[in-house]
Structures are given as C-alpha cells and as structure tokens.
Design a protein that fits this description.
Distance between the termini: 22 Å
Radius of gyration: 20 Å
CATH topology: TIM Barrel
CATH superfamily: Metal-dependent hydrolases
Low-confidence stretches: none
Shape: globular
Number of helices: 13
Structural class: alpha/beta
Number of domains: 1
Number of strands: 18
CATH architecture: Alpha-Beta Barrel
Mean pLDDT: 98
CATH class: Alpha Beta
Amino acid sequence: MKLLIKNGALVLNDGVKKLDILLQDGKIAKIAEHITADCETVDASGLHVFPGLIDMHVHLREPGFEGKEDIESGSRASVAGGFTQVCCMPNTNPVCDNAVVVSYIKNRQKEVNLCKINPIGAITRGQEGKAMADIGKMKSAGAVALSDDGKSVMDSNVMRLAMEYADGFGLKCLCHCEDENLVDGGVVNEGYNSTLTGLKGSLRAAEDIMIARDIALAESLNIPVHICHVSTYSGLEIIRSAKARGVKVTAESCPHYFVLTDDIITSYDTFTKVNPPVREERDRRAVIEAFRDGTLDCIVTDHAPHSLKDKQVEYNLAAFGMSGIETSFALSYTYLVKTGALTLCELARKMSGNPAEILGLEGGEIAVGKAADLTVADLGAKYVIDSKNFLSKGKNTPFNGYEVYGRIKYTVVDGEIKYKN
C-alpha cells in the first residue's frame, strides 16, 4: 500500500522544509522534491506535516467505565486530535495490573484499528500502593510503562523496589506526585481563590514533596523516572536542579497548566476541576518557561473524559479531570508557538519525538525507514473550541469558546489515512 503526500511543509528535526513524502507498507519510503508515484495522493499545499503526535498520558476508561469513554470513542477522538499513538493509564475496572487486561486493551486496539494504543500497567496491585503488580508479565503482554496514576505510591520502599524491578524489564515508572496526607480532601489550589470561593485547597507542597521523593530515589538508584503533569513552579525548580546534576529524570505537563490559572474556579464550573489543580499565574508562566528551557520534555493531555452525571454535581463531589485529546494540538500551537515560546520543531519534539524516546516507541520522527505515522495540520486555520463537536464521549472541557489556531486535516497511521477533515 502506498500514499503520497505532496507539497507539504515537513517539520523535521533540522527545520521545516517543503518536500514530498512517499509512504509504503507502513514505512516512510522516500522524502524528496517532486516525487511521482501511481498511488493515492494528498495535496498538502499550505499545510504542515508533523511526525505523528504521541500522547503518553490518557485515560480511555475501558474496561469498566465505558460510560465515560471506551477504546473506540477514545481512538476516534485521538485521531481527530492528530494523535497516532496514545498511552492509556491503568485506573480501569479491573485495574490494568496484569497481563490479561494489557492483552485485552491491545486486542481492542486491533479491532478498532485507528490509532496505536500502548497500555501502561499499574505499579502496584489494584493501585493500592502495597505490593508490586505483575510487572514482567505485563511487559511481555505489551505494557510500555508503569504508573499508579491518580495516586502516588506512598510507601517509599515499595516505590524503590518497583523502580528497581521495572528497570530490570526496561520499563520506566511514570509518577503521579501527590502526598495524599497533605491533600486532605483538597479540590483546588490552596490560595486566594480557594479562600474566595470557600472550596478546600490543596497545598502545592503536596506535589513538590513527592516530586522530590521520586527524584531522590532515581538519583540514589541511578534509575530513570518520569514525573507526570507538573503544575507548580517550585516542583519545576526541583526537576530543573535534578537535571542539572545529571539525574535521569524526565517530565511532562498539560495545556491546562500553561493556558489557565485558578481564576477559573470562581465560576464553580466543575469542568475546571482537575488533579493536580490548576495553579496561579506564577505557575502558569513557569510551565511555559520550563517547556522553553527543556525542563519539561513532553506535552501530554491527561485526557480524562467523564459523563455529565460525574460533573453536574456540587464542586466538592464532582470527578477530577478534563477531556483534552481533541484540543491539545491547537492550544499548544496557539499558546506556545504563536507566542514565541517554542518553534515548530520544538513543538514536534514535545508532542512526538520525546514521548517516543522516553518510552521506546516506534515513531516520533519524519525520516526514511521510520513508521509512516504523520499528522497534517493547517496552522492558519482559526476556529472556536466547541465540545459539542468532540468525538470523545467526554465533553468536560474548560476551553469552550476559546479561539485557537491549528486545525488537524489528516492523521495517518502506518501509511493509512485514519482521519480526514
């Protein structure tokens, strides 16, 4: 099978170049000017061609919570958002802490046949933080990393043993950093706006303490660790300092942390409730700077779809999470590239190359012989975000009404067009 994409501006590691690209048998076969071939052809004039976007932190909810999202709806939303690969977190029902659930997710991905889905196994059984899950068997079944996302492994010795055992299988631990004792039921950032609204605040130290703990383990053991959805300026300073010392730490953050501040909670709109909470302007600016200087390696969505019944309740009772897979690229381009914080090539690294490198995934680069996974976008296209148009079951976004640039036109997985706008 062949596909030719002509006249596009290819976002390569060494710059943006107008070239044709020929895809054959799931691989990039040729990159050059004026390629001709007898096959399906896409005219990408005026469009930019990125390496297929990779989101290493999503929640697809299946098995167990299909009312919020399932693998089919999540896959449709993913390719609509330009993502050729996603990595799904293990807080399903049953928890993805064994080879059977990992295999189930892989089989469902083959049935749906849209984007590539890489399961992330739980660090501990049932995500209870007490005993290690079946790490080796999950790796054999196709797990690409480990996480107890949604909660930290509070027992430091269990975390130490898990990191060592996972490293023996070539897996990284992706750490949700939150001291549950300090959070103590907090639902928003602790500060002026939590006082103003009367909503219980979560101290930023709850995140920072666990970031420091997991980095200390990584440094002592000389084992890589990845820090999830960083939201605080102080946590970023801990990561920046560790990187300067040579600690093997990588980190990610999400669009809601570089676009929003906790001013949004004054509306009491439960679509603004997320964990960790959106912080203050100092934190927002720090996240942008951390992407700029390399402290943050990856842009992820933490796509957390919920049904309306999970959100249409009192703020304290509402579920945490935002639906983000279909808005991430446009928000990132609008708020990071158009503002000058990142170049297009740097954006591609944050949204494709670095996630592939960190997790050892195929893809992440436009080069001959690489996977034929591509995202084609019209960067000049301006539109207003409207969750009614989401393909995800989760309509819970705080970004309704935001004007953004960068519309996905094609998503190509293994040389096949999986989404066309």
